[in-house]
């Protein structure tokens, strides 16, 4: 048995169409039942000297002050990795938005209020030059964020590779924290797992390291987070017979990141849930070999994990996928709101909408043949994020 969105499906008997019918109320069906409020959210954004504020006024005038929105206006964000081609574009060779400043301007016009950084590099011909990962560069970035009514909410920054920490790595880590503070971030993180192995002993070491780094970040007013793909939600190997290297070969049924949450300090270590990859994990990792050798099934429930650890998940990657059982992942990545992941159900279940910060992400948004595609998809993502409504 595999499962999607909390509904069990038999692999042998299912087609893509049949599988979609098991997903419950789809995003498209949900929008059709909430037409009145959704129409307000997907209206064209207002343009003007202060696009973000103009959008606020537009929503307020339409009677939508965020009361029914599953993602309030001030929490609608995007990770800049989605539009990395636009950030890196040569402004001298294109009329499209190029570099951080013009991309910020365009994202603000779409309605976004928050951004998550994925590096501080841009094209050398853009204002400020190629490398803005300095104190001076951060001040320039902050001035542009303020100009367009945006807030930097996080970044995939720097996690020292050494442990115990070398003095050089520690200095670099502190410099990234300084940059995060200049940019006004509450959070700084990484796009990699705390460790790449399935063994409990390695996750214990990773927890010790992250507890130390998280305490350093906390003293600087920053919440340190790890962003993870599907592998981190596989089952931890923590018992049973040992292999030739003396490592455990079976599991108690706890998943690697669940264990990481258990052994790290909740005041110092946080997570960013990539909802797409969590659903890939739901498809891939549903059976484990228990310590006694029996096969046991435990279908992963991403929303339930967040509910059990609400304050540990300040950020999400809002990334969508269309079911494809032949892909090996269970889903193909598509623009946010055009796929089969039930985000209306997910955001309703996790609640705490004024705490969580969803960042629209699409890894494959840039195109080699359609230069404006990533920004077009960013607008689609914003419109569909804004359209999600709580319906009675």
* Number of strand elements: 16
Tell me the number of helical segments per DSSP (H or I, 4 or more residues long): 14
Strand order in space, largest sheet:
5-4-3-16-13-10-7-6
Counting helices, strands and paired strands, the structural category is: alpha/beta
Largest sheet: 8 strands, parallel
What's the end-to-end separation, in Å? 32 Å
Beta percentage is 15-25%
The average pLDDT is: 88
Helicity level, as a percent range?
25-40%
Please trace the helix and strand order, writing H or E for each element.
EEHHHHEHHEHEHEHEEEHEHEEHEEEHEH
Shape estimate: globular
- What radius of gyration results from the CA coordinates? 21 Å
Low-confidence stretches: 1-33, 35-51, 57-65
Labels describing this entry:
single chain; 392 residues; alpha/beta; eight-stranded parallel sheet; 14 helices; disordered N terminus
Short description:
The protein is built from 14 helices and 16 strands. It has 392 residues and is α/β, with parallel strands linked by helices.
3D structure, described in words:
With 392 residues, the protein is of the alpha/beta class. The chain has helices spanning 16-21, 27-33, 35-41, 51-61, 84-87, 99-110, 135-147, 167-183, 200-219, 256-263, 275-284, 302-308, 343-350, 373-387; strands spanning 2-4, 7-9, 77-79, 114-117, 151-155, 187-190, 223-228, 239-242, 248-250, 269-274, 287-289, 295-297, 315-318, 320-324, 330-334, 357-360. The strands form 5 sheets. An 8-stranded parallel beta sheet has the order 5-4-3-16-13-10-7-6. The protein has a two-stranded antiparallel sheet with strand order 1-2. A two-stranded antiparallel ribbon has the order 8-9. α12 (302-308) packs parallel to α13. The chain starts with a strand and ends in a 5-residue tail after the last helix. Residues 1-33, 35-51 and 57-65 have low confidence and may be disordered.
